[in-house]
Design a protein that fits this description.
There is one protein chain. By secondary structure, the chain is an alpha/beta fold. The protein has one domain: Rossmann fold (3-Layer(aba) Sandwich), CATH 3.40.50.850. Helices cover 32% and strands 20% of the residues. The protein has six helices and six strands. It has a six-stranded parallel beta sheet with strand order 3-2-1-4-5-6, sandwiched between helices. Helix 5 links the parallel strand 5 and strand 6. Helix 2 runs parallel beside helix 6. The longest helix has 15 residues. The chain is globular, with a radius of gyration of 15 Å. The model has no long low-confidence stretch (mean pLDDT 94). Keywords: Hydrolase. It comes from Streptomyces luomodiensis. This is Cysteine hydrolase. Pfam families: Isochorismatase (PF00857).
Amino acid sequence: MNNTALLAMDLQAAMVSHIRDAGYLPRVRRAIDAARAAGIPVLHVVVGFRSGRSDISDRNKAFSGLPEGAFSPGDPNAAIHPDVAPRPDEAVITKKRVSAFAGSDLELVLRSGGISHLVLAGIATSGVVLSTLRQAADLDYQLTVLADGCADPDEEVHRVLTEKVFPRQAEVTTVEEWAKTAR
């Protein structure tokens, strides 16, 4: 049994539209293809809310300012970008906050699959990647971050996180280097 899973996080149309690096989605696609070829489960993590916003608190600075209907069923901007879309047999995990664990069944899916090593990619480095890495480390998961499989609107924040913060709790590598050794 493979104990590794690739988490492809927040690769939704709304987030992808803010990424200016034309090579970003092809790199993430390379990671997804490498995982699939190696038999590593790919879990697609998205942010999503109920219609009517009953799961968004007015106290939540990050989400309370979203327009009505954002990231709710039927919002086209909530769809996973077609270049990195899940296969029918791949799990889509819906989270309610920044971390992939918050308000989702991710931990149940990981535990059920015997997963103890997470490979992280997604948008934004300072959002879902940072929050998920911190929580996963506290839950004793082995972690790998694909630095060029993560993107952030602030390049300096991305650099500081991937070069100085993440290495304290994770192996940090590139998509290409990881793809060579994915198993």
